[in-house]
Here is the input.
Amino acid sequence: MIEGARILITGATGRVAFPIARELAAHGNDVIGVARFSDEAARARLESVGVTPLRFELGRDDERELPDADYVFHAGAALNIPPAEWEWQFEVNVQATGRLVRRYANTKGLVFCSTGSQYAYQGKRPLRENDPPGVHLGPYSVSKTSAEQLVQYLSREIGTPCTIIRVFSTYGPEGGSPVDRLERMLAGKEIALHPDKPNNYNPIFEDDYVALGIRALEVAAAPVVVANYAGSETVSAEDYLAYLGALAGMEPCIVYRDDAWWPLAADVTHMHEVLGRCAVPWRDGMRRTLEATHPELELLPG
Ligand SMILES: NC(=O)c1ccc[n+]([C@@H]2O[C@H](COP(=O)([O-])OP(=O)(O)OC[C@H]3O[C@@H](n4cnc5c(N)ncnc54)[C@H](OP(=O)(O)O)[C@@H]3O)[C@@H](O)[C@H]2O)c1
Here is the structure.
């Protein structure tokens, strides 16, 4: 565990970076949490866990004005914006990432959060780091592939030690795509899955994505380390929804649609070598997530 370091975290109010920032602050690090604070309450939330908030807009503000840091965890990104705004998405996800890698050439490690959705679909086969890119989520996926190439180039040119983590489904009290599906189930709504069933995923629970995210800072190198960032176990959405349904006493309503996202399962062989293994079994993670997000429910044995 990194201790006594100064760590700058972008996207610190988000579901991936917030628990990482909290954990690093709890270990005596000076943690600076960067975001636009589009939700002002998020500022107080960071302060309450010992993280210093810093307002900064990726894509608009000047990275040279950011404070020095021993490590940088770069999770801030333009997500869920209309395809017509792709130029802004590239400005934030690609160009601002490049400027951060240049700004922090002298850090011990910079982690760039890419995505498992930058892979082309390989059917049932789990996705491994040397698989080709594809377009899972439109311009967003393309922006992440582009940013990866820029990080690779700059790290080689100027020596910034970097780790690119390809984030698959994170989940836990902060949310995540399994939680989005859980919420639909609890609301009695249909859950659309891809016809290529079962829809295999490698969801990674909060305890594990915090531990492996911090490890990613420690192993950063030039040239760049690239690793999937996913749960060690593969589980289908059908199976985890059935389990959550059994705990909550309801039946998930799954529909198979051609326009549903293709499932994302990760090959975790390389991840285990460079970042380590996950510790939380998927059933424990799902149960803890349901308990944290819906304390009002009385859970059945499952
Ligand atoms: N969660 C997943 O399962 C998953 C899967 C694949 C990839 N990822 C990647 O992991 C990273 C974190 O994702 P997340 O799920 O934690 O996202 P999130 O919950 O939506 O958080 C995004 C963060 O970025 C900040 N942000 C957005 N635009 C910004 C801008 N222009 N300047 C500064 N800050 C900005 C947001 O705060 P403000 O709005 O206040 O600025 C927030 O702190 C992203 O790079 C994402 O692409 C996540």
Summary: Residues 139-158 form the longest helix (20 residues).
